[in-house]
Amino acid sequence: MSAQCYNVSMMHSQTDAHAMKLLDLPLMLRLKQHAIVLHSELGLTEDARGQSSALLSSIVFPRGLHTLLAQRDEQNVVGQFRYRQGELNAHIVYLAPTLEEHEDDSIWLHMLDAMAAQAGKTGAQSLVGEVELSHRLFETMRRAGYAVYSRQVIWRSAPLSARPAPPGICIHAETPSDQIGVAALLGSTIPRILQAILGPSTDMAGLVYRRDGKIAAYIGYSEGKHGIYVLPFVHPEALGEAPELIAAAWQQIERSRKLPVYVCVRGYQGWLENAMRDLAFEPWLEQAVMVKHLAAGVRQACFEQVGLSTTGGRKPAATLRMGGECKLQRDPH
After folding, report:
1. Whether residue 306 has pLDDT greater than 80
2. Average pLDDT in the 226-241 region?
3. For residues 60-72, average pLDDT
4. Is the pTM of this model over 0.70?
5. Does domain 5-145 have CATH number 3.40.630.30?
6. How many CB atoms are located within 10 Å of the residue 274 CB?
7. Could you give the CA distance from residue 148 to residue 287 in angstroms, rounded to a whole number?
8. DSSP string for 71-115
9. What pLDDT is attached to residue 161?
10. Nearby residues of 52 by Cβ (< 8 Å), 6 or more positions away
11. 288 closest CA partner among 155, 119, 150
12. 129, 217, 237, 265: most buried by Cβ count inside 10 Å?
């Protein structure tokens, strides 16, 4: 596999970052056991660092995964990001090893810059990472030009016991006929400036709730060997029904009775935290969604149908609208 290199002089030594090669594999297998995962959906549903992780498949079967190794003196850092052609954003999967509290972060800064450069070359407009607010890497990412676009709390529950669905709540798997309504809900519940970043991933399945003939809630979810990751979008008019909606959703996710369930509540829907408490979920992680733009201007995003779902329909996702450019603000709350 050919390697692209990024060489810069930092302080009095030179740092090299290059695409992963087979010769680097023993070093990377050692480093990744001490990684910090910056992709919550993957990290909570699959083992992003284990022996069956995406690391090995990115050598033989790239599948949108890009892994780099940075080396400086005796230091080594591996970084991986995920980008699929046609999507707006690339997403950091992990950095390894993790950055300790009092450690010089120069090589991590270089790795963040190298991943941004490579992501831009692949076609991504921005590079996204989710990091705990208390972690040292949060400040390092700020220094590397990442802005906080939202805060989020991951709520956790042990495997859920089987129980009847709440009365009066009818929730069903998304179908092609739901496409327009789901896109409208996402456009009205996610603040416009965040829509290009915080929509559901194309890997997610979805459940739909209608109220007075209109889609009032969309529950996106991903399942893996280690857990279920849930991303709810609930219209404010359905606020009073939020606990029942989420409870009805997990009754349709069969593996929720065997695996822990993680619900991501983002800052713009913070009122859902009361529903999480009502359902006996506990706050697990408090994170910042951090974004680095890879171009001076980013075209306005809209929700279009871009990915095939398991039912044959097309899943709403943020795509690039070929219109005027808008200047994105930093640190919106």
Report:
1. no
2. 92
3. 79
4. yes
5. yes
6. 12
7. 10
8. EETTEEEEEEEE--TT-SEEEEEEEESPPPTTS--HHHHHHHHHH
9. 77
10. none
11. 150
12. 129
Average pLDDT over residues 140-161: 94
Return the bridge partners of 7, or none.
16
- Measured distance CA(246)–CA(27) in Å, rounded: 43
CA distance 172 to 207: 5
Cα distance between residue 254 and residue 275, in whole Å: 21
Cα–Cα distance measured from residue 149 to residue 261, given in angstroms and rounded to the nearest whole number: 25
Q: Do domains 5-145 and 155-284 have the same CATH topology?
A: yes
Q: What is the pLDDT of residue 70?
A: 93
**CA-CA-CA-CA torsion sign (186, 292, 88, 34):** negative
Main-chain phi, psi angles of 193, to 5 degrees: -70, -15
DSSP-derived secondary structure for 139-186: HHHHHTT-EEEEEEEEEEEPSPPP-PPPTT--EEE--GGGHHHHHHHH
Average pLDDT of 234-260? 90
Domain coordinates in residue numbering, the chain:
5-145, 155-284
Q: Which fold has domain 155-284?
A: Aminopeptidase (3.40.630)
**The residue type at 194:** L
Q: For residues 184 and 182, what is the distance between their CA atoms, to the nearest angstrom?
A: 5
